[in-house]
């Protein structure tokens, strides 16, 4: 599957994250060079599978993905991120 320029930029930035890093969809969009494209980031992550650290991306209020919150919380906690009530605690 060939990626669009946007998809590639998002995945490249996401691959730079380290264990314990957490980004919002909006931050990831902006850091990939596409400010304002938070919703498109979500669509990209949903459509491209799980061969990247998708669990490090949350919404602007720190909420986990509603259809994968158990797995996301497990992975974030394993990286030392504080998670409670399906939400990341930002420091």
CATH superfamily: Winged helix-like DNA-binding domain superfamily/Winged helix DNA-binding domain
From the alpha carbons, calculate the radius of gyration and give it in angstroms: 12 Å
Tally of alpha and pi helices: 4
Largest sheet: 2 strands, parallel
Query: Any guess at the CATH architecture?
Result: Orthogonal Bundle
Gist of the model:
With 91 residues, this protein is mostly helical. Helix content is 42%, strand content 9%.
Describe the structure.
By secondary structure, this protein is mainly α. It has a single domain (5-88), classed as Winged helix-like DNA-binding domain superfamily/Winged helix DNA-binding domain (Arc Repressor Mutant, subunit A). It contains four helices and four strands; from the N terminus they run αβααβαββ. Helix 2 (25-31) packs across helix 3 (38-47).
């Amino acid at each position: 599957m060939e990626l669009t320029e946007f998809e590639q930029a998002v995945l490249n930035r996401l691959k730079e994250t380290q264990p314990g890093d957490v980004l919002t969809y909006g931050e990831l969009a902006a850091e990939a060079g596409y400010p304002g494209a938070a919703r498109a980031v979500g669509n990209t992550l949903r459509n491209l599978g799980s061969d990247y650290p998708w669990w490090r991306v949350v919404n602007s209020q720190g909420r986990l993905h509603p259809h994968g919150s158990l797995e996301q919380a497990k992975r974030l906690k394993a990286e030392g991120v504080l998670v409670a009530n399906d939400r990341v605690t930002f420091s």
